[in-house]
Amino acid sequence: MKKFFLIALLPLFLASCGSSKTVHSDATRSLPDKGTTRVSSATAENIVNYAMTFEGTKYKFGGTSKKGMDCSGLIYTAFNKEKVWLPRISRDMAREGKSIPLRQTDVGDLLFFQTNKSSRVINHVGLVVESLGGAIKFIHSTTSRGVIISSLDERYWNDAFVEVRRMM
User: Fold this and answer.
1) pLDDT in tens, 130-155
2) Which residue in 73, 75, 84, 126 could disulfide with 140, CB within 3.0 to 4.6 Å?
3) Cα maximum dimension of the chain
């Protein structure tokens, strides 16, 4: 009975990455117009470097600190450090910036995923930390392993992939 209960709760945890917690920010730099391209690779590097400081942090729904964070909390926090405002929820983040072809992916871009195929809504986001020769690595927070770096070559992430968006 206990095992059945745990299995029944698993889909909830897998679909829970996009927090609905309202967060207010003092960020002063907003996103550029949707037609613009990357303004500063230094800013992208700073965002990635800050996000990497959270590697190993445990998962916490709605979290935005070393005590725990969810996927959108990681992205929100890393961009906010550089005074770039993003919405707090992954599905809302997916409406920002500019959609770009996967082959043009660069460090600092965001990857969006649908990990719950029955809901058909974006519920997960990752930040590209490396893009070399078509191999894309991204940092994100998972319910099972916390903040980790994964590869888009991994079947699970490749199958759940929806789009890549450039925010700067």
Assistant:
1) 999 889 999 999 999 999 999 999 99
2) 126
3) 55
- Segments making up each domain of the chain, as ranges: 40-166
71 is catalytic: yes
* Fold designation for 40-166: endopeptidase fold (from Nostoc punctiforme) (3.90.1720)
Torsion angle, alpha carbons of 141, 73, 35, 109, to 10: -30
Tell me, yes or no, if 17 is annotated catalytic. Answer: no
**124 is a catalytic site residue:** yes
User: CA 41, CA 72: separation in Å to the nearest integer?
Assistant: 21
Question: What is the identity of the amino acid at 104?
Answer: Q
Catalytic residue among 88, 91, 140, 166: 140
Q: How far apart (Å, rounded) are the C-alpha atoms in residues 68 and 63?
A: 5
pTM over 0.90: no
